[in-house]
Design goal:
The chain is α/β, with parallel strands linked by helices and about 210 residues long. The chain contains eight helices and eleven strands.
């Protein structure tokens, strides 16, 4: 674990890390996949942790405009928030952090991110990096580098909370430390990073400009 290690800031992925939105997400994407004749069981595991438009582009569907499809999918996800809940313990953890020492870094568009955080009863952060803020989404490190820059800290001095391989790779490439959240994992992840199922046992001390896990 990372007890007694201090960090300049915490950077949180959203889906699967702060909130559990799998049921809503997979309902929307299942309908889309069926319309386009995709193998749903093979397709669904590929959608998590990356930008919607990049998932659409990877399918190389003839006659499909990725930007239009991504916009329609985002609207459908905004309209379906049934079952979106906060990961256990995360609300208390966020409330214990200084507002300028943490950020949300998500592959979701801003409007969808705000909608899901509100549906889960979580506060909107002072800083949120979303899909619109970067040209290259996860697994590229750009989003975490940008979040650290806007917080005025170095990415290597941040702890990233992530759940998906693409996000973990992005954090590693940014030089950050990583904590893996397994709340929504069906199977154990093979990772060198510390893994926790939820936030109930995490405590943080804010010492000046540093955050320390207890």
């Amino acid at each position: 674990m990372l007890e007694h290690t201090s960090f300049a800031a915490f950077l949180f992925d959203m889906d699967g890390t702060l909130i559990n939105s799998i049921l809503a997400t997979e309902r929307v994407w299942t309908r889309w996949a069926l319309r386009h004749g995709l193998d749903v069981d093979a397709f669904l595991p590929t959608i998590h942790g990356v930008r919607c438009i990049e998932t659409v582009r990877r399918q190389n569907l003839p006659g499909v405009d990725p930007e239009q499809e991504a916009a329609a999918l985002t609207q459908a996800e905004m309209e379906d928030t049934k079952g979106v809940t906060a990961i256990d313990g995360v609300a208390a953890l966020l409330a214990s952090l200084p507002a300028n020492r943490w950020a949300v870094v998500t592959s979701a568009p801003r409007a969808l991110a705000e909608r899901r955080l509100q549906a889960a009863g979580l506060p909107l952060p002072t800083l949120m990096i979303t899909s619109e803020d970067v040209t290259h989404g996860k697994p590229a490190p750009d989003c975490f580098l940008l979040a650290a820059k806007r917080l005025g800290v170095a990415a290597r001095d941040c702890l990233v909370f992530e759940d998906a391989p693409a996000g973990i790779q992005a954090a590693e490439s940014a030089g950050a430390s990583v904590m893996v959240i397994s709340a929504t994992h069906v199977h154990a992840m093979d990772t060198p990073h510390p893994v926790i199922a939820h936030y109930n046992d995490i405590r943080v001390a804010a010492d000046g400009e540093r955050l320390r896990l207890l």
